[in-house]
Amino acid sequence: MSFGLLRLVVSGLLLLLLSRPAASASAPTVVTHLPGFDGPLPFSLETGYVGVEEETGTELFYYFVESEQSPGADPVLLWLTGGPRCSGFSGLAFEVGPLKYVLAPYDGGLPQLVYNPVSWTKMASIIFLDSPVCSGFSYARAPNGCDVGDYSSSLQVQRFLNEWFTDHRQYLSNPFYIGGDSYAGKVVPLIAQHISQGTERRQQPVINLKGYLVGNPITDPKFDGNFRVPAAHGFGIISDQIYEAAMQNCNGDYVNPTNRMCAEVLQTVKSLISEIVDANVLDKKCVFSMPKPIDNVTARKNLLEEFIELNEAPARPNIDCTTYGFYLSYFWMNNKMTRDALGIKQGTVIEWKRCKRELPYKYDMPSSIPYHLNLTTRGYRALVYSGDHDLVVPQLSTQAWIRSLNFSVVNDWRAWHLDGQAAGFTIAYANNLTFTTIKGGGHVAPENRPKECFAMAQRWLANKSL
Length: 466
Description:
This protein is an alpha/beta fold and about 475 residues long. The chain folds into two domains: about 5-220 and about 365-460, Alpha/Beta hydrolase fold, catalytic domain (Rossmann fold, 3-Layer(aba) Sandwich), CATH 3.40.50; about 220-275, no CATH class. About 35% of the residues lie in helices and about 20% in strands. It has helices at about 5-20, 90-95, 150-165, 185-200, 220-225, 230-235, 240-250, 260-275, 295-305, 325-335, 335-340, 370-375, 395-405, 445-450, 450-460, and strands at about 30, 45-55, 60-65, 75-80, 100, 115, 125-130, 150, 175-180, 210-215, 290, 315, 360, 380-385, 410-420, 420-430, 435-440. It has an eleven-stranded mixed sheet with strand order 1-2-3-7-4-9-10-14-17-16-15, with helices on both faces. The chain has a two-stranded antiparallel ribbon with strand order 5-6. The radius of gyration is 22 Å and the shape is globular. One of its GO terms (molecular function) is serine-type carboxypeptidase activity.
């Protein structure tokens, strides 16, 4: 399908969705205290639901943290978490938000939270959204309401933003950006395009979209998958001989082998990659906190007495694993006190999971490159960043699709610095497109390189050179 035809189809779907009345949204909850956090919150937190589709009873849940600096003037950022089907709370507690867990051994009680000193809310107001529907605390009353995909969920986010800004008109004049990592990076440009089209049509409210930022973004399988083999070679995971065999037999296609020799060498590559964590080649292999029956007697006892009734809990990783915080979030989120503090509607989401990979999802957008091209050539700012130790979406693949846009280089490849050290490398292109690496960063770079990502975002949002 051509991009022009695709755009017409999407525009038609957008008009169809916008013609539907939204479900009524309940009043937001102002949260001043949270269970497990010592004292009042040192930032302004609001939570709530916004109805985006009456037919299915779909309501999206959000966390809004007001800028801790100058909320009247600072940018407003919509932050989406990847997966798809992962909760926006991941962004708040593990990526760019003002909370983080105390990584103490879980004893069956309530996990503790502390303030994150490098929260992006020091420079922007942030909406953390549970999207697509049925992620986190977002829900649909109709049985088929959770069955969405790239296009339909992006349209729901567009409806959410229209409704949210209608109720929060004091932020309409603030610069607005959309951001996200991993799979969220694929739909961010699509959502930005919806907002841009609404602005062109002068639909109300007129959102002051200025640009978007994406980290290690899923973009196009032609690029994302094909650079895993050369990246694995660069990381020293596969040998020169294996890499040469792949180049000789696969004819540049490392995703769809067309002969036996290629298939065999790719199986060898896959086996070797399985020895490491592809989301960050420096990490130790850990349980990824996927659903598993609870086998801890103390945890069972406490769940029955203090928590909502649950059927599953994540597998327990070692405390020195990066996934241990994910494990703690399950118990904190499924605590009744937490639910009450956040204003969660009873009977909507029985069991909160950070990621709900068992739910259906249509991966129906083949590539986001046309949207990147369309937005940047029309003047919207774009920051694309890559944790340089990611093998899921290697920085090589991201550089390659950016080069395919054929933009001229404005500021050539150089190091950018933090505290007198190189924090990564960056290049600036025409049409306000900046690419940067995060030295030592993984697939979700703000998780393991928070200071570097904070500095990057702070400079970029302020229109300063990295």
